[in-house]
Specification:
Largest sheet: 6 strands, mixed
Strand content: 25-35%
Structural class: alpha/beta
Number of strands: 12
Shape: globular
Distance between the termini: 38 Å
CATH topology of one domain: Rossmann fold
Helix content: 25-40%
Radius of gyration: 19 Å
CATH architecture of one domain: 3-Layer(aba) Sandwich
Oligomer: single chain
CATH superfamily of one domain: P-loop containing nucleotide triphosphate hydrolases
């Protein structure tokens, strides 16, 4: 399989090099731009997302969450477009993008607080059934839903918490539940917005192990502030600065980039 090498020059003059096979690209953007009044939050961003963990980093206000909102349909671009598996998805509502296989967790945990852990995941599993709201759904289908729900709880380490009301979970486990809900929608791509934010060191370790396990099956796009986490888990890193791609490459290359150190790492 041939590997395509593309070189693009961003506004800062930094050369961005991609070494991802065309066949491996699942999501891409072309000159993606978003304005909020006079503020340009995202400015001509070109991304190519392939296998493994692709982290999006940058200082506060760099445009990371805006980019996620553009990728998942919560915002429409002013120019440029997003493609998923070769189909342009810009302008589609979030539910339509989700149904195509793009799952997302949010910076603020998004769970059904009053439902049990099992019910939270089961609702997400049922959302992918064609007959999910059919009151005459077969008993076999319901058993399949329960089996898949149990499998996902096991994957995210919550099998022993199935009957616990979600609001009573420790916060770190709520983050795992949030990821489990995303996995329950049968995604082909998972976007995680700061999944370790506000959790303990032990829970951070568990979440990183979970992300690593997911990335062996599915591409993962990660927003994360902790640079040590990013360098340890990422296969590719994109650095945003004032809405522009400042640098992109494997962790060692990004870590040693002087412009990245100056703009984001403070000379780290």
């Amino acid at each position: 399989m041939a590997t395509a090498i593309d070189q693009k020059h961003c506004h800062s003059g930094v050369t961005v090099t991609h070494a991802i096979s065309h066949d491996d690209v699942i999501l891409s953007t072309e000159n993606l731009t978003k304005h909020f009044g006079a503020l340009t939050a995202i400015n001509g961003v070109n991304l190519r997302i392939g296998p493994g963990v692709h982290s999006i980093i940058g200082p506060n206000g760099a445009g990371k969450t805006t980019l996620f909102n553009l990728l998942t349909g919560f915002l429409a671009p002013d120019s440029g477009h997003v493609s998923y598996r070769g189909e342009r998805i810009s302008g589609l509502p979030p539910y339509a993008i989700s149904q195509r296989g793009v799952a997302r967790s949010f910076q603020i945990t998004s769970i059904f607080a009053e439902l049990s852990v099992f019910e939270n995941v089961r609702v997400a599993v049922q959302s992918r059934l064609k007959a999910s709201y059919n009151f005459l759904i077969s008993h076999r289908s319901l058993k399949d839903v329960e089996r898949k729900t149990a499998e996902i709880l096991s994957r995210v380490g919550l099998e022993n918490w199935a009957d616990t009301t979600a609001k009573n979970l420790p916060y770190g486990l709520q983050r795992c539940l949030d990821i489990g809900i995303s996995l329950a929608t049968d995604p082909s791509l998972v976007l995680l917005d700061e999944p370790t934010s506000g959790v303990s060191r032990e829970d951070t370790t568990n979440i990183l192990q979970l992300i690593a396990a997911i990335s062996r099956r599915l591409p993962v796009v990660l927003i994360e502030h902790n640079i040590d986490i990013v360098l340890s888990i990422s296969d590719m890193i994109t650095v945003l600065y004032q809405g522009v791609v400042l640098a992109e490459g494997p962790p060692a290359q990004v870590r040693d980039d002087e412009r990245v150190q100056e703009a984001y790492l403070g000379g780290y």
